[in-house]
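Suppose you are handed a protein chain with no further information: no name, no annotation, nothing but its sequence. What can you learn? This example shows the usual starting point.
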Amino acid sequence: MRILGIDPGLRSMGWGVIDVEGSRLGHVANGQCAGTGDDLARRLLALHVALSDVVATHAPDAVAVEKTFVNKDGAGTLKLGQARGIALLVPAQAGLDVAEYAPNVVKKTVVGVGHAEKRQVGHMVRMQLPGAEIAGADAADALAIAICHAHHGATALANAVRRALV
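A reasonable first move is to predict its three-dimensional structure. Written in structure tokens, the prediction is:
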């Protein structure tokens, strides 16, 4: 199964693609889509075009997106939500189901601690995907989201198949 992980961001949307075969994870590609332009509409369009290209190029079977957490900066949260809308829209346009994971779930799955720092996440992603050249912190987070889905999504799929066969 090929999984695309997406870390939504308005200036930089991280993405990472992994292949999962049983319990083995393999790095395919990663990068960061730049939200370019002076106004919000142009940034969102740039993110949409770039992420659409990622989906077309890497043909994922599943997509996982990080959920937005609400912080003290309401305006910032709203803007992030708009970028997250692009992260949900593009896979839906391609007919893909999208799983969503809270940041603490991703960190706990990859690092073992729900409140891990970005550098700890990046380090553990590199440990789990040896040899991967990671494009930056947002791409590392996206790979972590894909890894999280490989663990949690596979369990959910196996349980659904098991229930269907009974």
